[in-house]
Amino acid sequence: MTNSATTRRKASNPSHPSHAALPAGGAARADADGSATEPGRDCPRCPRLGEFREAARARAPGWFNAPVPSFGPDTAMLLIVGLAPGLQGANRTGRPFTGDYAGELLYGTLLGHGFADGTYQARPDDGLQLVDCRITNAVRCVPPQNKPLPVEIATCRTFLAATLADMPNLRAIVALGRVAHDSTVKALGLRAAEAPFGHGAEHSAGALKLFDSYHCSRYNTNTGVLTPAMFRKVFAEVRRYLDAAPVKP
Ligand code: SF4
């Protein structure tokens, strides 16, 4: 390994437990069909996010500071799509929704509806397992102020689309917030007018059903936009739908 490669690997903290899920360097991992579900940890496709990532690595070298990989089995029937890693949450810990307030509400809700097993302790090594459920983000890298640019959302959609295509048993998607909804609708090839975002809305896409929820961010719960009861109701509907869904042939 060259000196520069050694420096880069150290800077991106490859000993972090979640890095095992990411290809090294900038190249994405291609699956058997040639699609790429996981970007490399130095993914170069969004220059602004790459610079932000490098600054975070310099500031906090013990953090994950790389595109956050999907969490949960690719055989799951349910995929949850969030917006992007939080700076001090998933970007720090390397697991989606782990380490900040949004994770408290999301994982508590998943545990309550049989989509997770174990105890959520806000750490990637807490042993929590997702059950027939997977979590990903519309944008894999942490954006400044939690606001990805439209071009970054569009660029990272290649990984979202590949993730959808890589789940043979997928029957339901929960989009957390409008950005996740809009990007998922595009990745599914739906027309935006056919599937407008709304909390509690449900949209059919062939054999799939897309469920919408406001994002479970601290801001949304503090302002009363989303209450824990509203959030749980969405997942109760998903549970009901999946329990009644015929198994794919
Ligand atoms: S947001 Fe997605 S496409 Fe952009 S640099 Fe990160 S992993 Fe690559």
Keywords:
alpha/beta, about 250 residues, 5-stranded mixed β-sheet, Uracil-DNA Glycosylase, subunit E, binds iron/sulfur cluster, disordered N terminus
Architecture overview:
The chain is of the alpha/beta class and 249 residues long. Helix content is 35%, strand content 14%. It is built from eight helices and nine strands. A five-stranded mixed sheet has the order 6-3-7-9-8, sandwiched between helices. The chain has a two-stranded antiparallel ribbon with strand order 1-2. The protein has a two-stranded antiparallel ribbon with strand order 4-5. β8 (202-205) and β9 (208-213) form a beta hairpin. α4 packs across α8 and α5 packs across α6 (178-188). Residues 1-15 have low confidence and may be disordered. The chain binds iron/sulfur cluster. The site of iron/sulfur cluster (SF4) has 14 residues, from α2 and α5.
List the helices and strands and how they pair.
Layout: H1 3-11, E1 29-30, E2 36-38, H2 47-59, E3 78-82, H3 90-93, H4 101-112, E4 116-117, E5 129-130, E6 133-137, H5 150-165, E7 172-176, H6 178-188, E8 202-205, E9 208-213, H7 218-222, H8 228-244
Parallel strand pairs: 3-6, 3-7, 7-9
Antiparallel strand pairs: 1-2, 4-5, 8-9
The chain binds iron/sulfur cluster.
Iron/sulfur cluster (SF4) binds next to helix 2 and helix 5.
